[in-house]
Structure formats: C-alpha cells, structure tokens
Design a protein that fits this description.
Blueprint: H1 8-11, H2 13-24, E1 40-42, E2 53-55, E3 61-62, H3 77-89, H4 96-103, H5 107-122, E4 135-145, E5 162-170, E6 176-181, H6 186-196, E7 202-206, E8 220-224, H7 242-259, E9 262-263, H8 267-279, H9 288-296, H10 306-309, E10 319-320
Parallel strand pairs: 4-7, 7-8
Antiparallel strand pairs: 1-2, 2-3, 4-5, 5-6, 9-10
Helix pairs in contact: 2-3, 3-9, 4-5, 5-8, 7-8
C-alpha cells in the first residue's frame, strides 16, 4: 500500500512548487505586485531561485510564496506541505514536539509552523448558519484555567477562572464554528449568534437562561433541560444538542492529551484548527488529502510573523492550566 507521505509534492521541492502553483493559480501565474493573471514567464537558468517568475506587466519578480503564509519562510515548501498534511490528517492534532521529531529543526520552527497552519485553517466565514431555515445547535464549554481571566469585582460568574468557548453547529452543512468569549452572558454571546446565525434558523440550545431571550430573535427556539435529565425530546427526536456537545469531547481530548499546554491568547487558533477538521471531515466526503488542499487554499492573503504570534499580553502570561 502506497503511503500518502510518498506523494511527490511532499518529497521534492520542485514538485511542491508545481503543486502549490496549480492549486493557488488555477488560471495561470498571478503577480502579487500588480494582480495581473497569466502575464508572467518562468525564470530559467542554473542559478535561478526555485519557482521564480517574472511579470511582463510590472516587470517585477515573484514566487507563489509571496502574499501567502509561506512568504519570508526559510522552511522548504515541501516541508510545509508535509506538516500541513500531518496537522490535517490527525483527528486530535499533532504536538509541536512530534512535528519537530518528524521534520527536524528547532522546536521554535515547529511551533511557528503549527500556528501559521492554524491561521490558514481559520479561513473566512461564509455566510450565516441556518439561512435555509435549518437547525443550528449552540452550546458553551469551559476549558482550562487562565489566572488572568477573572470576573469584574462584584459580578459573579460561572467558572470565573476558566476559558469559555461557544460553539455553533449547522446541521445542514455539518460545519462548526467556535468562539472564545470573556463570559457566558447575553451581552457576550448575542454578537456571536447575530453575526453567524440567520434569523430564519431554528435554534437548538440547552435550558440555560443565557439563551432564553436570545432565542426570540430566530424563527424558532427549542431547548432541552439537562438539569431534568432530558437530552432529547421524546416528542421530537430532532430536538437536542448532542452533536455540538460531541465536538467538545474531541476538542478537549486533543487539547489535554496532545497539546497539553496552551497560552490563553492562542486558544482561538486551536478552536479554529478543530473547527476546520470537523467541518472538513470524512463523513462529509472530505478525505485527508482533500482536507490538506482546503487548508492550502487558506494561505492566500495572510501574513503571520513570529513577532505577532509570540507577542505577550499585558501583565503575566495567561497560560491555560488543565
């Protein structure tokens, strides 16, 4: 049986450039300087830099790396594709140390590669959930403890030192979106729902008071009462939040068992990673290779420097403790 890691673009630098060019430039070489498509010629010669093109319109050189997360990276492109495939094919993620052992190099490089790939996975949100009147499950979960994340004085809060994540699951598309919020309250959750869920949607939540008034903004709102041992309506088995709650188990197993340590300021990047893999899972007809290709499509128009990703928060570093 042929291993997926034996694919030419994962072993050879020239093949990697050709592969990325074909995926990111389906209509021909696109100049990142002037935006002209198909008006560039490939530079030739023994001393020519790998993948170099010359634009005939603006007369500037470029490669497929420019204008993407790969720009200014000293890591070879086929190594980038290897790590991207490993991250996309690992259901609960792959640790920085494991990436380092696999590709070699420093832990700092492996850590930065992981965060850049998560940035590609974040992608752009495409329209609200439930726009066709479908069911959207919403629930929140708590993970780790952040010593810097404390409620305002005089304002009691549920699990005040824990990081709070709200997740939305669209049953029609099977897509998942998660957001790190400061508190579980109407004022914190409503902007998330208003931006990401259509008023035509049918909202599915638990019986938390947070959603009691928010549900009036949607076509219908059904709630299951977990405190009474109710997880599925007996009169209507479609009413439940079991799907979105099931995604929390995958997320927490990965964060605790694989990543183990995470600064609170990076938690949104990890939620984007788990959301991406769930929204591009095999049950939706997307295999490991197609999932990696989808992540590759997300590298365009993004830059993430080491200084940006490693910048410290004001005050002590907020490190999540399990």
């Amino acid at each position: 049986m042929k291993s997926a890691l034996n694919a030419p673009e994962l072993r050879d630098e020239a093949a990697a450039f050709a592969y990325v060019e074909a995926k990111l430039w389906p209509n021909g070489a696109t100049c990142p300087h002037c935006g002209v498509v198909g008006e560039a010629s490939k530079a030739k010669g023994k001393t020519t830099r790998m993948g170099l093109w010359n634009c005939r319109a603006c007369r500037k050189p470029f490669t497929v790396r420019m204008g993407t997360l790969f720009e200014s990276s000293h890591v070879q492109l086929h190594i980038w594709l290897q790590v991207m495939y490993l991250v996309c094919s690992s259901k609960k993620g792959i640790s920085t140390r494991q990436i380092q052992r696999t590709i070699g190099g420093s832990m700092k490089t492996a850590w930065f590669l992981g965060h850049r790939i998560r940035e590609a996975m974040a992608g752009d949100q495409l329209g609200p959930f439930g726009s066709e009147g479908g069911f959207v499950e919403v629930d929140e979960t708590f993970i780790g403890r952040d010593p810097n994340n404390r409620p305002e004085q005089g304002k009691p809060s549920r699990s005040p030192n824990m990081n709070k994540v709200v997740s939305l699951m669209d049953r029609d598309s099977g897509a998942l979106r998660s957001f790190v919020v400061d508190e579980v309250s109407n004022r914190a959750i409503w902007p998330v729902l208003a931006t990401n869920i259509s008023p035509d949607a049918v909202l599915m939540t638990d019986s938390s008071r947070v959603y009691k008034n928010l549900g009036d903004n949607f076509r219908r709102h059904y709630a299951v009462d977990h405190s009474a041992g109710e997880y599925v309506w007996k009169t209507d088995p479609a009413v439940h939040t079991n799907t979105v709650e099931g995604t929390f188990s995958i997320f927490k197993r990965g964060m605790r068992g694989v990543y183990q340590h995470c600064a609170a300021k990076h938690l949104h990047r990890y939620t984007a990673e788990f959301d991406f893999r769930y929204s591009n899972r095999i049950a939706l007809g997307i295999d490991d290779k197609a999932r990696a290709d989808n992540a590759l499509a997300g590298v365009v128009g993004k830059r993430l420097t080491y200084e940006t990703v490693s910048a410290r928060r004001t005050g002590a570093e907020g490190r999540i403790v399990w």
